């Protein structure tokens, strides 16, 4: 819109923005306007964060909580990808399958993943199965939809060529549709990983007895705002790193395909 | 294959799928190879529906839960738009504003809306305020990002033309920036509406007095799967209704776009 900023101006403004954010926070905390109990200063949160990595809280240190969260996340996400991507590709090839699954999908689309919590607990318990079902229901749709879209937008001449050469259904899906839709699938996996991470947090807030969400619930219960904020920071960091890694994978695939 | 026949085929397969599922559900419940504790029979779901509609369940009748949840989403959503869209557009229009606000925004952005729930409860308790706050966060981030992207997507010619005609500042925002950004703004709003419902249901599952999430929570606690189904359906209907409402607003506010 307006002219570009000089490098100096950009750095100055960025620093001012950051400083303003933390200064406001510190001032609010120090002024006593908001009780310390509810708004610890940034420094206090940082100390708590460091403390949580050393001393166990509700049984585990922060890293151990993260590790157990990560196990659930991985299981739900991998399950969604392993079922969702092939299903989406097959829907892109077999019209009857598309006709069967798409309306079900449209009907279930508006059920928020979190609304599965009571059934997840009823069917699979609150240990490992329940949270995984919730993560799965968050991560599944983008896997299917993107694989399906990728398969639908394969250039028709590839399909015609393969058909002329007598490709079987199996060959068509694995050797034509799959390679052609890799960019779309990876884009879907990125969305799905983000949603899986969100759903994990939700699942752990409600049904779990370990993990980063559980740490936050316990922090909330004992009105330790610094613990809750440390949990938020950890969740934000891990989510950010997951997104960054998948973004790089995406960029690498696009580069290799010369785009 | 012409489009009409294709649509007929899809419709046919879709109807057949739902009919088959309904038959499977009814037969499975009647023959009792679908255990009623896990998969409630259709009759029980109907009874539960009538019960919550007429007598009420979990401290309220269905329309009370429904309206309560819809209102909370509306409050949070509107408040988020009121702050997020102007901020995003300002960041899009002025590189100075972008440099100033972006760092703080980047710190907040990776934290999933669900992760704000414990903090909101510590701050505001289990009442409606905490829910509106987390819904606000769920809608705030996407509305900033998309308003920003919307302003940036405006063709530079339009901006230059308006500037060279000496357009007053207020008119520039009203006649150039706002209409130019609207399509992407609405894309973002549609995405965030879904996130709002997820967040609200999670918030209400964790603690609430009325609302659809509270209905789900109570049904889960009572091991009442029929009521869980009713609650999930109600959440889906509420999500679909609010999305339809948003689509209506969208077409009204952009009459120049052919639908």
Structure description:
The complex is a heterodimer of chains A (259) and B (259). Chain A has helices at 7-31, 42-54, 62-93, 95-108, 117-152, 156-164, 169-180, 182-206, 212-221, 225-256. Chain A is mainly alpha-helical and 259 residues long. Chain A has a single domain, classed as MetI-like fold (Orthogonal Bundle), CATH 1.10.3720.10. Chain A is globular, with a radius of gyration of 23 Å. Chain B is mostly helical and 259 residues long. Chain B contains ten helices and no strands. Chains A and B meet through helix 1, helix 4, helix 5, helix 8 and helix 9 of A and helix 1, helix 4, helix 5, helix 8 and helix 9 of B.
Order of helices and strands of chain B: HHHHHHHHHH
CATH class of chain A: Mainly Alpha
Number of strands of chain A: 0
Distance between the termini of chain A: 27 Å
- Fourth-level CATH superfamily of chain A: MetI-like
Provide the number of structural domains of chain B.
2
Q: Which strand-content bin applies to the residues of chain B?
A: under 5%
Using only CA atoms, what is the Rg of chain B? 23 Å
Contiguous uncertain segments of 5+ residues of chain B: none
Helix/strand-derived category of chain A reads mainly alpha
What is the CATH architecture assignment of the largest domain in chain B? Orthogonal Bundle
The dominant shape of chain B is globular
Gap from first CA to last CA of chain B: 25 Å
Mean pLDDT of chain B: 87
The DSSP helix count of chain B reads: 10
Q: Which secondary structure elements does this structure contain, and how are they paired or packed?
A:
The complex is a heterodimer of chains A (259) and B (259).
Chain A: H1 7-31, H2 42-54, H3 62-93, H4 95-108, H5 117-152, H6 156-164, H7 169-180, H8 182-206, H9 212-221, H10 225-256
Helix pairs in contact in A: 2-10, 3-4, 3-5, 3-7, 3-8, 3-9, 5-8, 8-9, 8-10, 9-10
Chain B: H1 3-31, H2 42-54, H3 62-93, H4 95-108, H5 117-124, H6 128-152, H7 156-164, H8 169-206, H9 212-221, H10 225-253
Helix pairs in contact in B: 2-10, 3-4, 3-6, 3-8, 3-9, 5-6, 6-8, 8-9, 8-10, 9-10
């Amino acid at each position: 819109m307006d002219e570009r900023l000089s490098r100096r101006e950009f750095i100055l403004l960025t620093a001012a923005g950051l400083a303003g954010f933390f200064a406001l926070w510190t001032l609010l905390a120090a002024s006593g306007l908001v009780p310390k109990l509810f708004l610890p200063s940034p420094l206090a949160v940082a100390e708590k964060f460091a403390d949580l990595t050393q001393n166990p809280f509700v049984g585990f240190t922060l890293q151990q909580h993260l590790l157990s969260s990560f196990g659930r996340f991985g299981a739900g996400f991998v399950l969604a990808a392993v079922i969702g991507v092939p299903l989406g590709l097959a829907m892109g090839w077999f019209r009857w399958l598309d006709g069967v699954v798409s309306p079900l999908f449209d009907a279930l689309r508006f059920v928020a993943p979190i609304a599965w919590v009571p059934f997840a607990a009823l069917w699979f318990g609150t240990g490992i199965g329940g949270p995984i079902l919730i993560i799965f229901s968050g991560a599944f749709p983008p896997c299917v939809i993107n694989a399906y879209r990728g398969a639908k937008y394969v250039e028709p001449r590839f399909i015609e060529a393969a058909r002329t050469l007598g490709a079987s259904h199996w060959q068509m899906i694995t050797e034509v549709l799959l390679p052609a839709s890799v960019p779309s699938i990876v884009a879907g996996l990125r969305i799905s990983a983000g949603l899986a991470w969100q759903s994990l947090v939700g699942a752990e807030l409600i049904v779990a007895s370990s993990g980063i969400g559980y740490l936050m619930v316990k922090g909330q219960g004992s009105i330790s705002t610094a613990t809750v904020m440390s949990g938020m920071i950890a969740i934000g960091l891990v989510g950010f790193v997951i997104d960054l890694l998948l973004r790089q994978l995406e960029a690498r695939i696009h580069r290799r395909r010369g785009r | 294959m012409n489009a009409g026949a294709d649509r007929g085929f899809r419709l046919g397969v879709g109807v057949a799928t739902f009919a088959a599922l309904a038959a499977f559900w009814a037969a499975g419940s009647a023959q009792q190879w679908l255990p009623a504790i896990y998969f409630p029979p259709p009759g029980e779901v109907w009874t539960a529906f009538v019960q919550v509609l007429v007598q009420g369940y979990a401290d309220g009748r269905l329309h009370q839960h429904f309206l309560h949840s819809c209102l909370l989403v509306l409050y949070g959503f509107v408040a988020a738009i009121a702050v997020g869209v102007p901020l995003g557009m300002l960041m899009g229009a002025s590189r100075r504003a972008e440099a100033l606000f972006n760092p703080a925004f980047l710190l907040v952005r990776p934290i999933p809306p669900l992760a704000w729930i414990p903090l909101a409860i510590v701050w505001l308790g289990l009442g409606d305020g905490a829910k509106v706050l987390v819904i606000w966060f769920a809608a705030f981030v996407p509305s900033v990002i998309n308003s920003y992207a919307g302003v940036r997507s405006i063709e530079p010619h339009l901006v230059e033309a308006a500037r060279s005609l000496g357009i007053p500042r207020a008119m520039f925002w009203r006649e150039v920036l706002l209409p130019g950004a609207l399509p992407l703004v609405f894309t973002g709003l549609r995405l965030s509406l879904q996130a709002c419902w997820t967040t609200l249901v999670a918030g209400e599952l964790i603690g609430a007095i009325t609302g659809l999430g509270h209905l789900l929570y109570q049904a889960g606690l009572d091991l009442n799967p029929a009521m869980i189904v009713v609650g999930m359906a109600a959440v889906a209907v509420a999500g679909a209704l609010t999305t339809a409402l948003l689509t209506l607003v969208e077409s009204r506010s952009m009459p120049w776009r052919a639908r």
